[in-house]
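Input C-alpha coordinates:
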Protein backbone atom coordinates (compact mmCIF):
# COMPACT_ATOMS: atom_id res chain seq x y z
CA UNK A 1 0.00 0.00 0.00
CA UNK A 2 1.65 3.18 -1.23
CA UNK A 3 0.75 5.54 1.62
CA UNK A 4 1.88 3.18 4.36
CA UNK A 5 5.51 3.92 5.29
CA UNK A 6 8.40 1.53 4.77
CA UNK A 7 9.16 0.10 8.20
CA UNK A 8 12.43 0.15 10.10
CA UNK A 9 13.85 0.47 13.61
CA UNK A 10 15.66 3.57 14.87
CA UNK A 11 18.87 2.61 16.67
CA UNK A 12 21.47 5.20 17.63
CA UNK A 13 20.10 7.55 14.98
CA UNK A 14 20.22 4.99 12.19
CA UNK A 15 17.14 3.74 10.37
CA UNK A 16 17.65 -0.01 10.51
CA UNK A 17 15.81 -1.92 7.77
CA UNK A 18 15.13 -5.64 7.60
CA UNK A 19 18.22 -6.86 5.71
CA UNK A 20 18.70 -10.47 6.77
CA UNK A 21 16.72 -10.04 10.00
CA UNK A 22 13.51 -11.86 10.88
CA UNK A 23 10.42 -9.84 9.99
CA UNK A 24 6.81 -9.42 11.11
CA UNK A 25 4.00 -8.79 8.63
CA UNK A 26 1.81 -5.82 9.50
CA UNK A 27 -1.80 -6.38 8.46
CA UNK A 28 -4.59 -3.90 7.80
CA UNK A 29 -7.35 -5.20 10.12
CA UNK A 30 -10.11 -3.87 7.85
CA UNK A 31 -8.90 -5.65 4.70
CA UNK A 32 -6.55 -8.36 6.07
CA UNK A 33 -4.03 -7.17 3.47
CA UNK A 34 -0.32 -7.26 4.41
CA UNK A 35 0.78 -3.61 4.33
CA UNK A 36 4.29 -3.72 5.78
CA UNK A 37 7.25 -5.88 6.64
CA UNK A 38 8.73 -4.98 10.03
CA UNK A 39 12.33 -5.87 10.95
CA UNK A 40 12.72 -7.65 14.29
CA UNK A 41 15.72 -6.88 16.46
CA UNK A 42 18.40 -9.46 17.11
CA UNK A 43 20.61 -9.48 20.20
CA UNK A 44 23.25 -7.30 18.51
CA UNK A 45 20.62 -4.65 17.66
CA UNK A 46 19.47 -4.57 21.27
CA UNK A 47 23.04 -4.31 22.59
CA UNK A 48 23.62 -1.39 20.25
CA UNK A 49 20.46 0.30 21.45
CA UNK A 50 21.47 -0.22 25.09
CA UNK A 51 24.93 1.25 24.53
CA UNK A 52 23.39 4.27 22.81
CA UNK A 53 20.81 4.70 25.58
CA UNK A 54 23.59 4.76 28.18
CA UNK A 55 25.42 7.49 26.20
CA UNK A 56 22.14 9.29 25.59
CA UNK A 57 21.34 9.42 29.28
CA UNK A 58 24.80 10.72 30.19
CA UNK A 59 24.28 13.53 27.69
CA UNK A 60 20.57 14.36 28.15
CA UNK A 61 20.59 14.44 31.95
CA UNK A 62 23.03 17.37 31.77
CA UNK A 63 20.82 19.52 29.50
CA UNK A 64 19.01 22.57 30.79
CA UNK A 65 15.25 22.55 31.17
CA UNK A 66 15.05 25.07 28.31
CA UNK A 67 16.75 22.65 25.92
CA UNK A 68 14.27 19.92 26.80
CA UNK A 69 11.35 22.33 26.56
CA UNK A 70 12.45 23.40 23.07
CA UNK A 71 12.45 19.78 21.88
CA UNK A 72 9.06 18.95 23.39
CA UNK A 73 7.37 22.09 22.10
CA UNK A 74 8.95 21.73 18.66
CA UNK A 75 7.85 18.09 18.49
CA UNK A 76 4.31 19.03 19.61
CA UNK A 77 4.16 21.48 16.69
CA UNK A 78 5.35 18.79 14.27
CA UNK A 79 2.64 16.44 15.50
CA UNK A 80 0.08 19.06 14.49
CA UNK A 81 1.68 19.57 11.09
CA UNK A 82 1.73 15.81 10.46
CA UNK A 83 -1.70 15.14 11.95
CA UNK A 84 -3.42 13.81 8.82
CA UNK A 85 -0.49 11.62 7.80
CA UNK A 86 -0.13 10.05 11.27
CA UNK A 87 -3.89 9.55 11.73
CA UNK A 88 -4.02 7.76 8.38
CA UNK A 89 -1.25 5.37 9.43
CA UNK A 90 -3.26 4.55 12.57
CA UNK A 91 -6.33 3.67 10.50
CA UNK A 92 -4.30 1.52 8.12
CA UNK A 93 -2.46 -0.50 10.75
CA UNK A 94 -4.85 -0.44 13.70
CA UNK A 95 -8.29 0.07 12.15
CA UNK A 96 -9.62 3.02 14.15
CA UNK A 97 -11.63 5.68 12.28
CA UNK A 98 -9.53 8.60 11.05
CA UNK A 99 -11.13 11.08 13.44
CA UNK A 100 -10.07 8.97 16.42
CA UNK A 101 -6.51 8.94 15.08
CA UNK A 102 -6.61 12.73 14.82
CA UNK A 103 -7.76 12.93 18.43
CA UNK A 104 -4.81 10.78 19.45
CA UNK A 105 -2.43 13.13 17.66
CA UNK A 106 -4.01 16.01 19.60
CA UNK A 107 -3.64 14.05 22.82
CA UNK A 108 0.12 13.77 22.26
CA UNK A 109 0.36 17.41 21.15
CA UNK A 110 -1.33 18.52 24.38
CA UNK A 111 0.64 16.12 26.57
CA UNK A 112 4.01 17.22 25.19
CA UNK A 113 3.15 20.88 25.73
CA UNK A 114 2.09 20.00 29.27
CA UNK A 115 5.33 18.08 29.91
CA UNK A 116 7.32 21.00 28.51
CA UNK A 117 5.73 23.18 31.19
CA UNK A 118 6.44 20.60 33.88
CA UNK A 119 10.10 20.39 32.80
CA UNK A 120 10.45 23.98 34.04
CA UNK A 121 9.05 23.07 37.46
CA UNK A 122 11.27 20.25 38.67
CA UNK A 123 12.06 21.61 42.09
CA UNK A 124 14.13 20.34 44.97
CA UNK A 125 14.19 21.76 48.51
CA UNK A 126 16.69 22.94 51.10
CA UNK A 127 16.27 21.64 54.64
CA UNK A 128 16.72 23.97 57.64
CA UNK A 129 20.19 23.31 59.10
CA UNK A 130 22.58 25.18 61.46
CA UNK A 131 25.03 27.60 59.81
CA UNK A 132 27.81 25.67 58.12
CA UNK A 133 25.66 22.71 57.34
CA UNK A 134 23.49 22.18 54.29
CA UNK A 135 21.03 19.45 53.32
CA UNK A 136 19.33 19.52 49.93
CA UNK A 137 16.70 17.24 48.48
CA UNK A 138 17.15 16.86 44.74
CA UNK A 139 15.23 15.25 41.95
CA UNK A 140 17.18 13.47 39.28
CA UNK A 141 16.18 11.54 36.16
CA UNK A 142 15.77 7.84 36.92
CA UNK A 143 17.94 6.74 33.97
CA UNK A 144 17.39 4.95 30.65
CA UNK A 145 13.77 3.82 30.33
CA UNK A 146 12.43 0.73 28.51
CA UNK A 147 8.97 1.71 27.28
CA UNK A 148 6.64 -1.03 26.01
CA UNK A 149 3.54 0.38 24.34
CA UNK A 150 0.53 -1.61 23.07
CA UNK A 151 -1.44 -1.40 19.84
CA UNK A 152 -4.73 0.06 21.04
CA UNK A 153 -3.51 3.69 21.13
CA UNK A 154 -0.67 3.43 18.62
CA UNK A 155 -0.03 7.20 18.67
CA UNK A 156 -1.05 8.09 22.22
CA UNK A 157 0.74 5.33 24.09
CA UNK A 158 4.23 5.99 22.65
CA UNK A 159 3.69 9.75 23.09
CA UNK A 160 2.65 9.31 26.68
CA UNK A 161 5.78 7.30 27.47
CA UNK A 162 8.31 9.36 25.52
CA UNK A 163 7.12 12.76 26.82
CA UNK A 164 7.91 12.54 30.56
CA UNK A 165 11.20 10.72 29.91
CA UNK A 166 12.36 13.48 27.58
CA UNK A 167 11.10 16.18 29.97
CA UNK A 168 13.10 14.83 32.90
CA UNK A 169 16.40 14.05 31.16
CA UNK A 170 16.04 10.28 30.68
CA UNK A 171 16.84 8.34 27.52
CA UNK A 172 14.25 5.88 26.17
CA UNK A 173 14.19 2.65 24.20
CA UNK A 174 10.65 2.35 22.87
CA UNK A 175 9.28 -1.05 21.92
CA UNK A 176 5.84 -0.40 20.58
CA UNK A 177 3.52 -3.19 19.50
CA UNK A 178 4.66 -4.98 16.36
CA UNK A 179 1.07 -4.69 15.04
CA UNK A 180 1.29 -0.87 14.96
CA UNK A 181 4.89 0.21 14.34
CA UNK A 182 4.19 2.96 11.79
CA UNK A 183 2.58 5.31 14.31
CA UNK A 184 5.27 4.75 16.94
CA UNK A 185 7.99 5.58 14.41
CA UNK A 186 6.14 8.71 13.26
CA UNK A 187 5.73 9.92 16.86
CA UNK A 188 9.40 9.37 17.74
CA UNK A 189 10.44 11.01 14.46
CA UNK A 190 8.72 14.25 15.54
CA UNK A 191 10.97 14.39 18.62
CA UNK A 192 14.10 13.58 16.61
CA UNK A 193 13.24 16.19 13.98
CA UNK A 194 12.72 18.72 16.78
CA UNK A 195 16.29 18.15 17.96
CA UNK A 196 16.21 15.18 20.33
CA UNK A 197 19.70 13.66 20.16
CA UNK A 198 19.48 10.29 18.37
CA UNK A 199 20.93 8.30 21.24
CA UNK A 200 18.23 9.67 23.59
CA UNK A 201 15.21 8.28 21.73
CA UNK A 202 15.25 4.93 19.93
CA UNK A 203 12.68 2.45 18.63
CA UNK A 204 13.15 -1.29 18.42
CA UNK A 205 10.72 -4.09 17.54
CA UNK A 206 11.08 -7.80 18.03
CA UNK A 207 9.68 -10.93 19.56
CA UNK A 208 8.19 -9.27 22.67
CA UNK A 209 9.46 -11.73 25.25
CA UNK A 210 12.95 -11.76 23.70
CA UNK A 211 13.17 -7.97 23.72
CA UNK A 212 11.83 -7.59 27.24
CA UNK A 213 14.15 -10.25 28.67
CA UNK A 214 17.13 -8.66 26.94
CA UNK A 215 16.39 -5.06 27.90
CA UNK A 216 15.21 -5.82 31.43
CA UNK A 217 18.20 -8.11 31.91
CA UNK A 218 20.56 -5.19 31.30
CA UNK A 219 21.75 -2.96 34.15
CA UNK A 220 21.63 0.00 31.72
CA UNK A 221 17.82 0.13 31.91
CA UNK A 222 16.65 1.74 35.17
CA UNK A 223 12.94 1.89 34.59
CA UNK A 224 10.21 -0.08 32.83
CA UNK A 225 7.04 1.61 31.64
CA UNK A 226 4.49 -0.89 30.36
CA UNK A 227 0.91 -0.65 29.12
CA UNK A 228 -0.87 -3.88 28.31
CA UNK A 229 -2.56 -6.87 29.84
CA UNK A 230 -2.29 -7.74 33.54
CA UNK A 231 -0.87 -11.18 32.80
CA UNK A 232 2.02 -9.78 30.73
CA UNK A 233 2.46 -6.98 33.27
CA UNK A 234 2.96 -9.44 36.11
CA UNK A 235 5.54 -11.32 34.06
CA UNK A 236 7.44 -8.11 33.28
CA UNK A 237 7.33 -6.96 36.92
CA UNK A 238 9.07 -10.20 37.89
CA UNK A 239 11.76 -9.61 35.27
CA UNK A 240 12.20 -6.01 36.48
CA UNK A 241 12.40 -7.17 40.10
CA UNK A 242 15.58 -9.15 39.41
CA UNK A 243 17.42 -5.86 38.99
CA UNK A 244 15.20 -3.75 41.29
CA UNK A 245 14.11 -1.54 38.39
CA UNK A 246 11.44 1.11 38.87
CA UNK A 247 8.14 0.15 37.17
CA UNK A 248 5.10 2.04 35.93
CA UNK A 249 2.38 -0.43 34.99
CA UNK A 250 -0.82 0.51 33.17
CA UNK A 251 -2.67 -2.78 33.00
CA UNK A 252 -6.15 -4.09 32.35
CA UNK A 253 -9.50 -2.84 33.60
CA UNK A 254 -13.15 -3.90 33.68
CA UNK A 255 -14.87 -0.49 33.79
CA UNK A 256 -17.85 -0.59 36.16
CA UNK A 257 -20.60 2.01 35.50
CA UNK A 258 -23.04 2.64 38.35
CA UNK A 259 -26.37 4.00 37.07
CA UNK A 260 -28.82 5.13 39.75
CA UNK A 261 -32.54 5.50 39.09
CA UNK A 262 -32.53 9.21 40.03
CA UNK A 263 -30.75 10.03 36.74
CA UNK A 264 -32.17 11.13 33.40
CA UNK A 265 -31.53 7.83 31.58
CA UNK A 266 -31.17 9.43 28.14
CA UNK A 267 -28.42 11.68 29.49
CA UNK A 268 -26.48 8.64 30.73
CA UNK A 269 -26.98 6.74 27.47
CA UNK A 270 -25.84 9.72 25.38
CA UNK A 271 -22.70 10.09 27.49
CA UNK A 272 -21.79 6.42 27.82
CA UNK A 273 -22.31 5.05 24.31
CA UNK A 274 -19.45 7.06 22.67
CA UNK A 275 -16.74 5.80 25.07
CA UNK A 276 -17.92 2.23 24.35
CA UNK A 277 -17.82 2.86 20.58
CA UNK A 278 -14.33 4.37 20.83
CA UNK A 279 -11.68 2.13 19.35
CA UNK A 280 -14.22 -0.73 19.17
CA UNK A 281 -14.07 -1.04 22.96
CA UNK A 282 -10.35 -1.89 22.90
CA UNK A 283 -9.62 0.65 25.60
CA UNK A 284 -8.48 -0.13 29.15
CA UNK A 285 -10.92 2.48 30.57
CA UNK A 286 -13.82 1.39 28.36
CA UNK A 287 -17.16 1.26 30.22
CA UNK A 288 -17.96 -2.45 30.39
CA UNK A 289 -20.06 -3.56 33.37
CA UNK A 290 -23.20 -1.44 33.63
CA UNK A 291 -24.44 -1.87 37.19
CA UNK A 292 -27.96 -0.47 37.10
CA UNK A 293 -30.35 0.19 39.97
CA UNK A 294 -33.34 -2.13 39.49
CA UNK A 295 -35.93 0.62 39.06
CA UNK A 296 -34.08 1.95 35.99
CA UNK A 297 -32.87 -1.37 34.56
CA UNK A 298 -35.31 -2.06 31.70
CA UNK A 299 -35.44 1.52 30.52
CA UNK A 300 -31.66 1.82 30.56
CA UNK A 301 -31.03 -1.50 28.82
CA UNK A 302 -33.52 -0.77 26.03
CA UNK A 303 -32.27 2.78 25.41
CA UNK A 304 -28.58 1.80 25.56
CA UNK A 305 -29.10 -1.17 23.25
CA UNK A 306 -31.00 0.88 20.66
CA UNK A 307 -28.40 3.66 20.61
CA UNK A 308 -25.36 1.36 20.60
CA UNK A 309 -26.78 -0.94 17.90
CA UNK A 310 -27.18 2.11 15.60
CA UNK A 311 -23.38 2.64 15.50
CA UNK A 312 -22.02 2.83 11.96
CA UNK A 313 -19.32 0.15 11.64
CA UNK A 314 -16.94 0.05 8.68
CA UNK A 315 -13.54 0.89 7.21
CA UNK A 316 -12.05 3.77 9.18
CA UNK A 317 -10.92 5.66 6.08
CA UNK A 318 -14.63 6.41 5.43
CA UNK A 319 -15.19 9.64 7.41
CA UNK A 320 -18.77 8.69 8.29
CA UNK A 321 -17.72 5.49 10.08
CA UNK A 322 -17.94 5.55 13.90
CA UNK A 323 -16.40 2.17 14.74
CA UNK A 324 -13.69 0.31 12.81
CA UNK A 325 -12.65 -3.35 12.93
CA UNK A 326 -11.01 -4.93 15.94
CA UNK A 327 -7.25 -4.68 15.79
CA UNK A 328 -6.28 -8.31 15.23
CA UNK A 329 -7.91 -11.73 14.74
CA UNK A 330 -7.44 -12.62 18.44
CA UNK A 331 -10.05 -10.06 19.47
CA UNK A 332 -13.15 -11.31 17.54
CA UNK A 333 -12.19 -14.82 18.62
CA UNK A 334 -12.16 -13.71 22.25
CA UNK A 335 -15.52 -11.96 21.78
CA UNK A 336 -17.16 -15.05 20.23
CA UNK A 337 -15.84 -17.16 23.08
CA UNK A 338 -17.16 -14.82 25.78
CA UNK A 339 -20.58 -14.40 24.14
CA UNK A 340 -21.05 -18.17 23.71
CA UNK A 341 -20.00 -18.76 27.32
CA UNK A 342 -22.47 -16.16 28.68
CA UNK A 343 -25.33 -17.48 26.53
CA UNK A 344 -24.68 -21.02 27.73
CA UNK A 345 -25.04 -19.70 31.28
CA UNK A 346 -28.43 -18.14 30.53
CA UNK A 347 -27.50 -14.50 29.77
CA UNK A 348 -29.62 -12.49 27.30
CA UNK A 349 -28.14 -11.30 24.03
CA UNK A 350 -29.81 -7.93 23.38
CA UNK A 351 -27.91 -7.02 20.22
CA UNK A 352 -24.83 -8.09 18.26
CA UNK A 353 -22.81 -11.10 19.32
CA UNK A 354 -21.60 -11.75 15.78
CA UNK A 355 -18.83 -10.81 13.39
CA UNK A 356 -19.71 -8.53 10.49
CA UNK A 357 -18.85 -9.57 6.92
CA UNK A 358 -16.20 -12.08 5.94
CA UNK A 359 -13.26 -9.74 5.44
CA UNK A 360 -11.56 -7.83 8.24
CA UNK A 361 -11.94 -8.26 11.98
CA UNK A 362 -15.30 -6.47 12.30
CA UNK A 363 -17.54 -7.23 15.25
CA UNK A 364 -21.04 -5.94 15.90
CA UNK A 365 -21.75 -3.64 18.87
CA UNK A 366 -22.92 -6.15 21.44
CA UNK A 367 -25.10 -5.83 24.54
CA UNK A 368 -25.71 -8.71 26.93
CA UNK A 369 -27.86 -8.45 30.04
CA UNK A 370 -28.70 -10.42 33.15
CA UNK A 371 -25.32 -12.08 32.84
CA UNK A 372 -24.45 -14.44 35.74
CA UNK A 373 -21.47 -13.39 37.84
CA UNK A 374 -19.58 -16.57 36.99
CA UNK A 375 -19.63 -15.87 33.22
CA UNK A 376 -16.22 -15.32 31.70
CA UNK A 377 -17.09 -11.80 30.53
CA UNK A 378 -18.00 -10.79 34.09
CA UNK A 379 -14.49 -11.63 35.23
CA UNK A 380 -12.08 -11.10 32.35
CA UNK A 381 -11.58 -7.90 30.40
CA UNK A 382 -13.56 -8.25 27.13
CA UNK A 383 -11.45 -5.56 25.41
CA UNK A 384 -14.03 -5.27 22.66
CA UNK A 385 -17.40 -3.79 21.68
CA UNK A 386 -19.33 -5.43 24.50
CA UNK A 387 -21.56 -3.79 27.11
CA UNK A 388 -22.88 -5.92 29.96
CA UNK A 389 -26.00 -4.59 31.71
CA UNK A 390 -27.17 -6.11 34.99
CA UNK A 391 -29.73 -5.01 37.65
CA UNK A 392 -28.86 -4.57 41.33
CA UNK A 393 -31.20 -3.79 44.25
CA UNK A 394 -29.42 -0.93 46.01
CA UNK A 395 -26.31 1.23 46.40
CA UNK A 396 -24.53 -1.21 48.69
CA UNK A 397 -24.94 -4.11 46.24
CA UNK A 398 -23.89 -1.88 43.33
CA UNK A 399 -20.66 -0.80 45.03
CA UNK A 400 -19.94 -4.39 46.07
CA UNK A 401 -20.28 -5.50 42.44
CA UNK A 402 -18.06 -2.68 41.18
CA UNK A 403 -15.34 -3.68 43.67
CA UNK A 404 -15.77 -7.44 43.23
CA UNK A 405 -13.02 -7.82 40.62
CA UNK A 406 -9.27 -7.44 41.21
CA UNK A 407 -9.17 -4.64 38.59
CA UNK A 408 -9.34 -0.97 39.60
CA UNK A 409 -8.72 1.37 36.68
CA UNK A 410 -11.63 3.67 35.70
CA UNK A 411 -15.04 3.55 37.40
CA UNK A 412 -18.05 5.66 36.45
CA UNK A 413 -21.02 6.73 38.57
CA UNK A 414 -24.26 8.45 37.58
CA UNK A 415 -26.47 9.93 40.29
CA UNK A 416 -27.98 13.31 41.09
CA UNK A 417 -27.86 12.71 44.85
CA UNK A 418 -24.96 14.79 46.17
CA UNK A 419 -24.39 12.75 49.33
CA UNK A 420 -24.38 9.56 47.27
CA UNK A 421 -21.89 11.05 44.82
CA UNK A 422 -19.53 11.62 47.74
CA UNK A 423 -20.03 8.14 49.17
CA UNK A 424 -19.60 6.39 45.84
CA UNK A 425 -16.48 8.37 44.90
CA UNK A 426 -14.97 7.36 48.24
CA UNK A 427 -15.98 3.70 48.12
CA UNK A 428 -15.04 2.76 44.55
CA UNK A 429 -11.71 0.94 44.36
CA UNK A 430 -10.29 2.58 41.24
CA UNK A 431 -7.47 4.89 40.24
CA UNK A 432 -9.89 7.10 38.30
CA UNK A 433 -13.52 7.80 39.21
CA UNK A 434 -15.96 9.93 37.27
CA UNK A 435 -19.26 11.27 38.59
CA UNK A 436 -21.83 12.26 35.95
CA UNK A 437 -19.34 12.41 33.09
CA UNK A 438 -17.77 9.92 30.70
CA UNK A 439 -14.54 11.90 30.33
CA UNK A 440 -11.58 10.35 32.14
CA UNK A 441 -8.20 11.52 30.86
CA UNK A 442 -6.57 14.97 30.53
CA UNK A 443 -2.91 16.05 30.23
CA UNK A 444 -2.86 17.53 33.75
CA UNK A 445 -4.65 14.58 35.40
CA UNK A 446 -2.86 11.46 36.61
CA UNK A 447 -3.83 8.31 34.71
CA UNK A 448 -3.50 5.32 36.98
CA UNK A 449 -4.92 2.14 38.35
CA UNK A 450 -4.97 0.25 41.63
CA UNK A 451 -4.95 -3.49 42.40
CA UNK A 452 -4.42 -5.57 39.22
CA UNK A 453 -4.78 -2.48 37.04
CA UNK A 454 -1.26 -1.47 37.90
CA UNK A 455 0.71 1.13 39.78
CA UNK A 456 2.56 4.35 39.14
CA UNK A 457 1.16 7.09 36.95
CA UNK A 458 1.22 8.52 33.48
CA UNK A 459 0.11 12.06 32.58
CA UNK A 460 -0.11 14.94 35.03
CA UNK A 461 2.72 16.00 37.33
CA UNK A 462 2.64 12.44 38.73
CA UNK A 463 3.64 11.13 35.29
CA UNK A 464 6.74 13.31 35.41
CA UNK A 465 7.53 12.26 38.98
CA UNK A 466 7.47 8.64 37.79
CA UNK A 467 10.65 9.37 35.77
CA UNK A 468 12.50 11.01 38.68
CA UNK A 469 14.37 9.67 41.68
CA UNK A 470 14.92 11.63 44.88
CA UNK A 471 18.37 12.16 46.34
CA UNK A 472 19.27 13.94 49.56
CA UNK A 473 22.72 15.51 49.93
CA UNK A 474 24.02 16.40 53.43
CA UNK A 475 27.00 18.78 53.58
CA UNK A 476 28.95 19.69 56.67
P1 LIG B 1 -0.92 -9.53 24.95
O1 LIG B 1 -1.13 -9.57 26.41
O2 LIG B 1 -0.13 -10.62 24.32
O3 LIG B 1 -0.24 -8.15 24.50
C1 LIG B 1 -0.59 -6.90 25.04
C2 LIG B 1 0.57 -5.96 24.73
O4 LIG B 1 1.73 -6.37 25.43
C3 LIG B 1 0.97 -5.97 23.25
O5 LIG B 1 1.29 -4.65 22.86
C4 LIG B 1 2.20 -6.86 23.20
O6 LIG B 1 3.10 -6.49 22.16
C5 LIG B 1 2.82 -6.60 24.54
N1 LIG B 1 3.57 -7.74 25.05
C6 LIG B 1 3.16 -9.02 25.11
N2 LIG B 1 4.11 -9.78 25.67
C7 LIG B 1 5.14 -8.96 25.97
C8 LIG B 1 6.41 -9.14 26.57
N3 LIG B 1 6.82 -10.33 27.02
N4 LIG B 1 7.22 -8.07 26.70
C9 LIG B 1 6.82 -6.85 26.28
N5 LIG B 1 5.64 -6.61 25.73
C10 LIG B 1 4.79 -7.65 25.57
O7 LIG B 1 -2.32 -9.54 24.32
P2 LIG B 1 -3.02 -9.01 23.04
O8 LIG B 1 -3.72 -10.17 22.40
O9 LIG B 1 -2.17 -8.14 22.16
O10 LIG B 1 -4.09 -8.12 23.76
C11 LIG B 1 -5.01 -8.82 24.58
C12 LIG B 1 -5.17 -8.22 25.93
O11 LIG B 1 -4.20 -7.27 26.26
C13 LIG B 1 -6.47 -7.49 25.97
O12 LIG B 1 -7.50 -8.36 26.33
C14 LIG B 1 -6.25 -6.46 27.01
O13 LIG B 1 -6.63 -6.98 28.27
C15 LIG B 1 -4.78 -6.25 27.03
N6 LIG B 1 -4.36 -4.94 26.49
C16 LIG B 1 -4.44 -3.90 27.34
C17 LIG B 1 -4.08 -2.65 26.90
C18 LIG B 1 -4.17 -1.46 27.83
O14 LIG B 1 -4.27 -0.34 27.35
N7 LIG B 1 -4.10 -1.65 29.14
C19 LIG B 1 -3.63 -2.47 25.60
C20 LIG B 1 -3.54 -3.57 24.74
C21 LIG B 1 -3.91 -4.82 25.22
Amino acid sequence: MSDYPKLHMIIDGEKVYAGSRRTYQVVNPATEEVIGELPLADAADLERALAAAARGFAKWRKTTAQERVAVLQGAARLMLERKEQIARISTLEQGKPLEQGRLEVMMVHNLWNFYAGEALRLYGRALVRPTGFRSTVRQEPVGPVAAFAPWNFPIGNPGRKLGPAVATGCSVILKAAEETPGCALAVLQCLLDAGLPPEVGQAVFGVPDEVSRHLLGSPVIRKLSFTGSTIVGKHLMKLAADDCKRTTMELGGHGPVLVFADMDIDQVVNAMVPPKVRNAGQVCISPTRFIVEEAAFSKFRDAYTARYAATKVGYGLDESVEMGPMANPRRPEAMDHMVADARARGAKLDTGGTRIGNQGYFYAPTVMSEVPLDALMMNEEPFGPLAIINPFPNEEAMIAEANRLPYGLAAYAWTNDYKRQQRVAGELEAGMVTVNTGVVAAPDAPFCGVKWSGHGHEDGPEGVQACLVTKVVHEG
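The mean pLDDT is 98. Residues 148, 150-152, 177, 208-209, 212, 227-229, 232, 236, 250-252, 284, 330, 381, 383 surround nicotinamide-adenine-dinucleotide (CB under 6 Å).
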